[in-house]
Hints:
Layout: H1 3-17, E1 31-35, H2 36-39, E2 46-48, E3 60-61, E4 71-72, E5 76-82, E6 84-89, E7 95-100, H3 103-112, E8 118-119, E9 123-127
Antiparallel strand pairs: 1-2, 1-5, 3-4, 5-9, 6-7, 8-9
Amino acid sequence: MTDQEWLTFFTICAKVLGPGNRIASKSAFWCSWTTFSKLSDDVFYWRCGLPSVDDLMPTHIKDSGTWGQPFLYQDIAHIILPRSFFWDTTEGGYEAGEKTQDLDRLSQELTAAGIKHRLTELVLEIKLY
Length: 129
């Protein structure tokens, strides 16, 4: 994936899925991702809402945005969006629930833009290794 393709991917995700947040209960959508750097270190996956359009730079996700730190597009190795995700919160008493993401619509938009991805019954993903 080129930097422009990643920028297009994240822009389409923000348009189709809505606002992301670091906290699952406050996020309209959710994802997990890892980087090539982490694959060679300890195979860590972050999880969070996807970056907002304001977080997107030409070559990277900016610092202090939804993802909390910068990520070069060229370092992103794998990103997974689940069809649904569970959340819970203790703000004002315990609450929990499940949110569904419209991965079929997202896949259609990504395909129309020429962004290669994989869609299953469980996830939409881009895996570069």
